[in-house]
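S1.2 Input.
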Amino acid sequence: MSAPARGRIAAAPLLWGILVLAAAAIRTVDARRPADGRVRESWRECDYAAVARNFVREGMDILSPRIDWRGDGPGFAEMEFPVVPWTMAALDKAFGYSEERGRWLMVAASLLALGAFVALARAVLPPAGALAASAVFAFSPLAVRVSNSLQPESLMLCLLVAAVYAFLRWLEKDGWVWYGLALASTAAAVLVKLPAAHVGLLFLFLLLERGGPAGLKRLRVWLFGAGALLPGILWYAHAHRFWTVYGNSLGVSNESHWFGLDLLARPGALLRLVDNLARLETGLVFTPLGVLLAVAAVAAIRRSRAAREARGAQAPESRAARIGAFWLIAAAVFYAAALRTTGDTWAAYYHVASAPAAALLIGAGFVAMRKPRDDRSDYFNSRFAATAALLLAGVLGFEGLMIVRGFHPSRFTGLYSCAQAFKPLIPEGSLVLCSGGLSRDETGKPVAYNASYMFFWLDRKGFSIPADRYSLEAVGGFTRRGARFFVLEKEGAAAPSSDFVEGLKGRASLAAECPEAYLFKLDETRPPGSGGPLLPRSSGRRRC
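S1.3 Output.
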């Protein structure tokens, strides 16, 4: 063996080790923070923290998750299978309360996802391509962003990648062990997050590619589909009752996600959603330069098809490119079907589902561009290989920039400070009314408006009022149902009109005010909108 070859073999474990350590280090940067004003996805993370806290306080029945914005009801809510908040609660009962512990659970799930992807990449790509694809996946801005968030995306991603790897091994070896692992991982992924069901379309593509329509006639294939979907169907049917009975849902039934023909009559709204979707995929999944490597991977598929017809051989990068392309198509079908959600900028974390597909395509494109072509000169081949290296470096550099830009979130620190100032003024057990988001999108479809963060930070239960339904009559209705305090945000989607604020000041006591919100004390005997005489302003008003 030549000295350069020995050097490459010796360097490979070192590079893999550096990759894993760097990925782990990046994921721990923001893991040491509770669910305070430094959350990234304020509604999502605070909901999960609240569900975990309510498991501890109100019972550990995993089939009965409860939220804080429950109004005057018991708080049972429709959501994905709550394994993450339940595990957080179980650890809290064993070791004491800690919101940070949930972040570390997700860091562990994210690293397991990386391990599963490394196994997948090494199975379908040459060593250089596997390392390149794994690096792209390890530093995917979205994968890093959700890696320490109090939400289930990292666990879903781990189970998805494990399911795809096990499914491919089953297709190769036709063994019961890999079949069982693929089935269990797929079923668990769908339970953890319903969008994971898109992987079924990838499996369909792989089965058709391998055996044609005849491959779908096998009993094991049908048992796989039934077994993978049945647990999710049973859980979501059970959880849907919480919506029908109590009206509580974490963005499942209380929001219109799906593409509809009405969007065709609103080309402006449709173009905005499609443009947002393209920007999210280009900026946070592929990166602009990664798109070029993905195109090279697709070109490799065509070249490999011609070579296979001529020599009966298929290039390994072509196989990885085909898997990546099939996976991306499956994810794209989901994104298109749920365009009203996936096309919104706030829903960036939904696009983490296509991160493995993008990494496989970029890795395959990197290999394809470095591969010498018999019909080209050495000069051309060397320049093409150098271009591939520069593109990959650009992809990783862009990913690094996006990761650093996302460090140390602080968007909600002001509201969190308000909540800490308001909390002592609200007696324990008092129901509160809090500002929510808009209840309708620009096409008139319902949107989940229930904001969880203020309830969680105040450690109080109560009602949400949508920002587009502010009125003294509406506040009076909540007052008659038991709301005793109203936290009204000043800015953002929930910003109230000056007339509404002045009306409240005339009919309720302004207990405190901070730069981001008001705290009103509501009088049950003369609720706002009742038409009674104005209440005097509180002489004990506090400025936070």
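S1.4 Remarks. The CA atoms of residues 62 and 204 lie 32 Å apart.
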